[in-house]
Amino acid sequence: MEPRTLVMGILNVTPDSFSDGGLFPSAEAAIDHGLALVAAGADIVDVGGESTRPGAERVEPGVEIERILPVIEALADAGVTVSVDTMRARTARAAVDAGARLVNDVSGGLADSDMARMVAELEVDYVAMHWRAHAPRMDALDRYDDVVAEVRAELAARVAHLADAGVDPSRIVLDPGLGFAKVTDSNWPLLARMAEWSGGHRVLVGASRKRFLGAVIGREGVDQADPAEREHATTAVTALAAQAGAWAVRVHDARAAGDAVRVVSAWQSAEQTAR
Fold this sequence. Notes:
Layout: E1 6-12, H1 27-40, E2 44-48, H2 61-77, E3 82-85, H3 89-97, E4 102-105, H4 115-122, E5 125-129, H5 135-138, H6 147-164, E6 172-175, H7 187-192, H8 194-198, E7 202-205, H9 211-214, H10 231-243, E8 248-251, H11 254-274
Parallel strand pairs: 1-2, 1-8, 2-3, 3-4, 4-5, 5-6, 6-7, 7-8
Helix pairs in contact: 1-2, 2-3, 3-4, 10-11
């Protein structure tokens, strides 16, 4: 069977993330959930200590590190492949020292001028997401004449900056930043035309339970503002992203995503055998 799209399970050790904030108030609860994500089918557990939901305020670096390090250490010691969801070079360093093997930076290095140099030193894989501003301002920057062309150009600039800092381009994964400076309609062209902006890099798709899914599934009796109501739509995007060749999907429900990517992999394997 052909290699399949990986499942990255979301583990937010925060009180204010949009879907699961406050669900894991202690390190022990977060560690248990991380292990449950793996048992459900996650290949990677993405641990974050700072919310990036629309309107979220930043936390102090020390608070972010205090939230995530015990969780990362315990999961890594248990053999889990861990990524750290952070915009700070200092946090990235601490997380990798604790056992994380991937840095997932929603700012693509724009939020911290030391990030590119740090990633080069750490020699780990790095997710560079398309980003225009911190959470309080990002919705106002959903302004594009051609969202695919502009995201392609802005991501290419980040790749060039990272490479200039010494990051191995083969370690760079690109994320279109669904929901970040893209409220609803701006997201769909980026999903439908992945090959046009990815530049041959691996792609991470993070659509899980986001607002733009709620905007298309509104129906009587359903609160489209409730993230939990968007899970089936998330699974549909997972399957389509896997079909399109995404390297990984970042999700809350690892079991649903794992089932979806395995079905796509089996389908694609059968197609290859028939040729």
